[in-house]
Write a structure and sequence with these properties.
The complex is a heterodimer of chains A (107) and B (150). Helix content of chain A is 61%, strand content 13%. Chain A has helices spanning 8-11, 15-26, 31-35, 42-54, 74-104, and strands at 29-30, 58-63, 66-71. In chain A, strands 1-3-2 form a three-stranded antiparallel sheet. Classes of the chains: A alpha+beta (107), B alpha+beta (150).
Chain lengths: 107, 150
């Protein structure tokens, strides 16, 4: 079944997925134990997990008969990149403003 | 990195002079970006700059004036995306001017990244990674009985 692709921001726009990430930030969990925290059907849980996996937020490992979910850095890097971009953006824009105001206007 | 970008600057000019540069569309163009800003609460406007394909940013920032208090405070929403109608980044830019004896202190806070601030998730994530890194370090140490750079 085709999954729509989500970017990092869309992935964590959903409260259930955020909560899944919160739980996984404490410890890696099996899909079963993760699902126990949510009042939703197993297919619904699976769908969220697939989206998290697809966007690089978690990795899934089969150990015995259980599937283990662990946090993964990739998905979060996209968010960091945005923040880094804006930080640089403002640093350079504010330098422009400083130049304009301090050179052109008399004190 | 914090989920909010903060900058603080000092200008040896009165707040009114700094305010002009934050709220006059032509002056804003000189240091920030082309725009159709108007100093009216509720006014919708946009900034235009070069696209950043690697970040799925088409170069247009969609904004709306949220709060405006002349010479003191200004805030606007700051939304952008790849240009297909989707918004990737939904945030808020806040300016604050504080009069000082010899000039004006200008504070910028670009935050309110809806998803990041929710439930302190960003910090939780960072802690989660750190823990994972330590786990990896511990495993490496067990294997090598040596030191690592972590």
């Amino acid at each position: 079944m085709a999954q729509p692709t989500f970017d990092a921001f869309q992935v964590i726009a959903d409260p259930s997925r955020r909560q899944m990430l919160m739980l996984l930030s404490k410890d890696s969990l099996t899909i079963n134990s993760l699902a126990e925290n949510f009042d939703m059907t197993r297919p619904a849980v699976s769908k969220h997990i697939k989206i998290l996996y697809g966007a690089g937020f978690i990795s899934i490992q089969d150990i015995g008969r259980e599937r283990h979910c662990t946090l993964k850095q990739d998905g979060f890097n996209a968010l960091h990149e945005w923040l880094r971009y804006f930080d640089q953006f403002w640093t350079s824009k504010l330098k422009n403003l400083e130049k304009l105001l301090n050179n052109k206007l008399p004190n | 990195m914090a989920a909010s970008i903060k900058h603080q600057l000092f200008f040896p000019h009165p707040p009114a002079a700094v305010w002009e540069y934050l709220t006059n569309a032509e002056l804003m163009d000189l240091w920030l970006m082309k725009n159709d800003f108007q100093p009216v609460a509720g006014h919708e406007f946009s900034f235009r700059t070069n696209p950043v394909p690697s970040l799925d940013f088409d170069g247009i920032v969609y904004c709306k004036v949220l709060e405006i208090e002349p010479f003191k405070k200004l805030s606007y929403s700051w939304k952008l995306g790849p240009g297909d109608g989707n918004i990737n980044v939904d945030s808020v830019v806040r300016w604050e001017l504080r009069p000082k004896d010899t000039g004006t202190e200008l504070l910028l806070d670009h935050g309110g990244f809806a998803i990041l601030e929710n439930a302190g998730i960003f910090n939780a994530m960072n802690e989660g990674w750190l823990k994972n890194m330590h786990k990896i370090a511990d495993r490496l140490n067990e294997k090598n009985h040596g030191t690592t750079n972590l």
